[in-house]
Specification:
Number of helices: 5
Number of domains: 1
Distance between the termini: 23 Å
Oligomer: single chain
Largest sheet: none
Strand content: under 5%
Length: about 110
C-alpha cells in the first residue's frame, strides 16, 4: 500500500479484537499477498476507495489486493530505477527474470489490453 502523503498522516486508529483463529487467518492471508496484517486489513477495508485512488478503476474485474500489490511493485521498481540512474549503475541481470514475471502477471490480468 502506498505511503500516505506528508500532509495526510495516519494518526487515527481502529482497534478490533479477533479470536486466535481469526487472527491467524488474517495473518495467513496477508502473508499470501506479501503484506503485513495491518496493510492487508487497510486494503480490505478501503478496497473500493483505493481502487479509484490508484487509478486502476478501469479494471474493476481485478482483485483490489492484486491492484495494491501491483502499485507497490511499480513504486519499488521506480525507486530502484531512480537509484541506479543517479549512480550510473547498469541494470543487474537478476532483475530481468523479475521484470518478465511482472509482465506475465500484467498480461494475464488483462491490464495490457486496456
Amino acid at each position: 500500500m502506498a505511503r500516505p502523503r506528508q500532509h495526510e498522516l495516519r494518526d487515527r486508529q481502529i482497534n478490533i479484537k479477533l479470536t486466535a483463529r481469526e487472527f491467524d487467518l488474517v495473518r495467513a492471508r496477508a502473508a499470501a499477498h506479501g503484506m503485513r496484517p495491518g496493510d492487508y486489513g487497510r486494503a480490505r477495508l478501503l478496497a473500493e476507495w483505493r481502487v479509484s485512488e490508484i487509478a486502476v478503476a478501469s479494471a474493476p474485474h481485478l482483485d483490489p489486493l492484486f491492484q495494491v500489490q501491483l502499485s507497490r511493485l511499480g513504486n519499488n521498481l521506480n525507486q530502484i530505477a531512480r537509484r541506479m540512474h543517479s549512480f550510473g549503475e547498469p541494470i543487474p541481470p537478476i532483475l530481468d527474470p523479475l521484470l518478465q514475471e511482472i509482465r506475465t502477471l500484467i498480461n494475464r490480468s488483462g491490464l495490457r489490453d486496456r
